[in-house]
Each structure stands twice: as C-alpha cells, then as structure tokens.
Amino acid sequence: MLRIILLIIFFISQSIIAQGFQGVVTYQTNRKIDLKLNDSRTNPDMQKQIQEMLKKQFQKEFTLHFNASESVYKEVESLGAPQPSSGIRIMIAGGGGGDVSYKNVKEERFADKRDVFGKIFLVKDKLEKLDWTLENETKKIGNYTCYKATAKRTVERFQSSTIDSEEKEEVQEEELTITAWYTPEIPVAHGPDDFWGLPGLILEVNDGEQNMLCNKIVLNPKKKLEINEPGKGKVVTQEKFEEVMQKKMKEMQDRMPRRNGQESMRIRIGG
Predict the structure, then answer these.
(1) DSSP helix/strand/coil, 154
(2) What values do phi and psi take at 265, rounded to 5?
C-alpha cells in the first residue's frame, strides 16, 4: 500500500514540476576500508597508516545538478590525499576529479566522461535498473522526511599486490545490499553516482562499500542551471570501458619502477 501511495504522489508531483524545476545537491562520501596485507614489510602500524590514507582518498564532496529528467554528478575539486611511503603505491581506478556522470532518467540512459590516465572516454549505455523494495521505515535528513528503500547488486571485488617479483591477484563476486533514503518531498527520480529510480530524490545511499550523504540542497536557484550531456571522448559501452580499465591498470603495474632491485608492493582498488 505504501508503495502504491508513494508512486501515485510521485507521478502527480512530477507532472506538476516538469517545467522548470531544478536543484543542486551536495553529497559527502566515505568508503569502508578493511585492508589486510600478508606481507612482512607491512607491520600493524604500517597497515594502519595505509588504512588512514585510503580513508582520506575516498572522503570527497560531489554535487548533483538536476531537473525533472536529467542530472549531472561530479566531484568538487580538492587537493588529493598524499601517498604513503615505504615502497607502497596506491592506485585508485577511475573516479578522477574531472569525471562527469550524466543521467537521463526519462530515456533511461547515461553518458559518463571518464579520464583514464590522460585519455578521455565517453561511456554511453542504458541505466541499470535496480529492483528497489520500498520499506515503511522513515527518518529525517535535514528538514526532509525520507523513506527507506533496499536493493541487491552483484559486484566484482578486485585486489592486486606484488611482493618482490611475485604478483598476486584476486577477483571475487559478492552480493551487496544497497540501502537508500529518498524523499517524496522532492519528486524526482535522481540520486548520487549511478543510483536512481525511486519516487523521490535520494538523499543518502550506502552500497555496502561507500556511503553518500546529502548535506546541502538548493531548489530552484535564481540562476538557471545548465545541465549538459558530455560530448567529447572515445565512445564506448560500459562493458568495453571495464575491459579498457583492466588493461590500463595492468600497464601501470608493469611500468612501476623497482626499488633496490625489488618491485615495491602495489595495492589496486576498483577497476
């Protein structure tokens, strides 16, 4: 019954605000880091240092500019976190500061500009439809009443390390539970990153690895927003882009210098 009521309110509200409704949302992101290294050079203190470095790498701020059917999600520029010392190199796959994520929820498609080590790709494909379950639980985020929704997603977790001259890679599939909090008070189907499709703006989402929380909303700003779809870059599908990422990360690993005749240990997250 709750699902039916919310959907009715959502579609009625969408028809009312279809003309000229806009907004800007700011999100803070944090990622869960659970790093365990089986390496004689990484004592508990060093592992703690790496954990803190990784945590800072993923503490970022993003903005979502949206209208009734389109949105653009991008990172707010900031100084990057420093790399740890002691021969350890951390590589973050994707998520560069110049990346732009465009979604068109009406046409159910996206166009993402991705900078992969200096080469620009334009990833175009259909939006992934999550099978959301609308829950009865509510909570306040700022002044907005938000409703809980959950969904499942299967992801590949990848970790690679090189100790001396031996490289080890692990790829495992894992089912994650996604928890989102959306508000019908802002009746658009948008959300941060690649999340969408709920009867209200998503103000918080946790995908099992990363939490994205809204800390500021500006509705209908005085200056009209320009929401432009990215148009430059080599056009590829999502599947092709993932293949490119794997290849580029392998090339980066191969090019890394050796120290004192031994390769430094490398940690790769994402990709």
Answers:
(1) strand
(2) -75, 140
Q: In degrees rounded to 5, what are phi and psi of residue 136?
A: -85, -15
Amino acid at 45: D
> Sign of the C-alpha dihedral, residues 145, 148, 149, 150?
positive
User: CB of 66 within 8 A of CB of 188?
Assistant: yes
Spatial separation of the C-alpha atoms in residues 174 and 36, rounded to whole Å: 18
- Tokens 């809204």: give the residue: 214
- SS3 at position 83: coil
Longest dimension (CA), the chain: 68
Nearest residue to 250 via CA among 137, 175, 171, 195: 171
Residue 264 pLDDT > 70: no
pLDDT in tens, 17-40: 555 689 999 999 988 665 555 555
Q: Give me the sheet containing 109-116, strands edge to edge.
A: 133-141, 144-163, 166-183, 201-206, 210-219, 22-31, 60-67, 70-75, 100-104, 109-116, 119-126, 234-236
Bin 105: left if φ > 0, else alpha if -120 < ψ < 50, else beta.
alpha
- What is the CA angle 186-127-66, rounded to 5? 30
Where are the domains positioned within the chain? Answer: 2-269
At 103-146, the pLDDT tens digits run 999 999 999 999 987 889 999 999 999 999 999 999 999 999 99
- Among candidate residues 121, 138, 106, 130, the one with its CA nearest the CA of residue 238: 121
pTM for the full model? 0.76
